[in-house]
Amino acid sequence: MQALLKFSKAVDWLNAQIGKSVIWLILAATVISALNAIVRKVFNTSSNAFLEVQWYLFAWSFLIAAGFTLLHREHVRIDVLNSRMSKSAQVWIDIIGFAFFLTPLCLTVLYLSVPVVIQMYQSGEMSGNSGGLIRWPVWAALPIGFTLLLLQGWSELIKRLAFLRGQGPDPMGRLTDKTAEAELIEALRREAEANAGQKADASPKPQH
């Protein structure tokens, strides 16, 4: 089990690093989109290559960050019934999901997508749009992204099995924490209260 836990930590570290780097792909897509809009408005010209590279960057950021999202358990969950169950029942539901749903899904996608990427690479297939880009780089995001998601699913599975054996911390602990949306709302509320307090301090005091 200790060897599996080391593997789990390595996968967690890998997806954490990739997740932190994805922001640069999003930034690049944003900059290219802005430049494309400026060129189109100012010079009345554009290129399908600019449009497609935005799609490529979005696809890469979305797919390779799937493992990072699972690491932080930010995928959509339906906890109406699950939250009312015991901790061991919740863990077993996750184990079944990772072992019998996520793993077969990822393996199926890899089985179907890898030959397609290889074929596109060998043929040099290009976009059907005028001035478009070569196809295989964006298709490569599919097997890479699902490989990272599969590895993270196995990591989560290992952590839950270790918890049931008493050899690991509670993997469900973060589920009781605030969601990202709740944390954002709380931060905005604190900022609004701080601004209101500063305005109150700066307002003139009544003369007696």
TrEMBL record:
Q: Does the keyword Cell membrane apply?
A: yes
Give the bilayer topology. Answer: Multi-pass membrane protein
Q: Does the keyword Transport apply?
A: yes
Instruction: List, for all copies, the residue spans of the domain called Tripartite ATP-independent periplasmic transporters DctQ component.
Output: 31-161
Cell compartments where the protein resides: Cell inner membrane
Q: What InterPro entries does the record point to?
A: DctQ, TRAP_DctQ
Q: Which residues cross the membrane?
A: 21-43, 55-71, 91-113, 133-151
Keywords (A to Z) from UniProt = Cell inner membrane, Cell membrane, Membrane, Transmembrane, Transmembrane helix, Transport
- PANTHER family linked: 2,3-DIKETO-L-GULONATE TRAP TRANSPORTER SMALL PERMEASE PROTEIN YIAM, SLL1102 PROTEIN
What's the stated role of this polypeptide? Part of the tripartite ATP-independent periplasmic (TRAP) transport system.
Assembly and interaction partners: The complex comprises the extracytoplasmic solute receptor protein and the two transmembrane proteins.
Q: Which family does it belong to?
A: Belongs to the TRAP transporter small permease family.
Q: What is the official name of this protein in its record? A: TRAP transporter small permease protein
Record lineage: Bacteria, Pseudomonadati, Pseudomonadota, Betaproteobacteria, Burkholderiales
